[in-house]
Amino acid sequence: MGTPQTELIFKAKAIILFLFVLASLPALSTGDDDKEALFNKGYEEEKNGNYWTAIKIYNKVIKMDPNSSEAYFRRGISKTEINDYKGAIKDLTKALTIKPYHAESYKERGLALYNTGDFKSSVLDSDKAISLDTTDIINYYNRGLSQIKLENYTAAISDFDKVILLNPTYYKAYLKRGNAKHQMRNLDEALGDINKGIEMNPEYPVGYKYRAMIYLDKKEKVMACEDLEKARKLGYEEQFGNAVNQLIMKNCFE
Question: Domain holding 186: CATH number?
């Protein structure tokens, strides 16, 4: 039988060994760690275009933390990507209830509202987003799109002016500003903007469709039909519908 001193030495060695083994083990994850890892997994799926999978993961994050504004925000964006605009609006509204001064949530909700045809509410959300972040050109651009739908062409032009001021290379702003000027019957200025947009991105079919519409109003049918054919060859129908084919049938087979 060992002496008390021997037993104390044995116990001390056992404690040291236990502490060494304990230090070697990975730290147990907390609930917050699990939630963050799950959220990051959802975000990776979202970035890779796997929106349905991302939504399912964000559902789990929200179940773990019903006050995660970021999970509602990202789930709302994913729902917009699958054209579930009403679901997106609901999620983004919830995100704003939790985090009311988040410019990105207003921007994304405004986009979803635009896609439901609620252009007035979309403008209001763009207004709020701009009040929180005056540097994001997409807020001005989106508001300009809604203003065109509301036939507020002067306001739309002002928004596209701001986009171009902040980013002179944003070709879509030139095209949309040209479109707004066309609606106001300012054909020459409209044509100048459309030409600029096409020059900046000659592979974007919408520019040729817009320019063709101006040429038709200017009674320059040959040039209009050439542009419509360019738009068709660049895949307008696959991306935006059959408006170009209808214009070709109506104007270019006489």
Answer: 1.25.40.10
Residue in the block written with tokens 């001021």 = 165
Render each residue's pLDDT in the chain as its tens digit; 254 residues.
Answer: 455 455 544 454 555 554 454 455 444 344 567 999 999 999 999 999 999 999 999 999 999 999 999 999 999 999 999 999 999 999 999 999 999 999 999 999 999 999 999 999 999 999 999 999 999 999 999 999 999 999 999 999 999 999 999 999 999 999 999 999 999 999 999 999 999 999 999 999 999 999 999 999 999 999 999 999 999 999 999 989 999 999 999 999 86
Q: What residue numbers bound the domain in which 230 lies?
A: 169-254
Number of domains comprising the chain = 2
Token pair 């579930």 is found at: 84
- Distance between the two ends of the chain, CA-based, in angstroms? 115
The residue from 100, 128, 154 where one domain ends is 100
DSSP symbols for 208-245: HHHHHHHHHHTT-HHHHHHHHHHHHHTTHHHHH-SHHH
* 3-state class (DSSP) for residue 30: coil
136, with CB counted inside 10 A (0-12, 13-18, 19+), is: middle
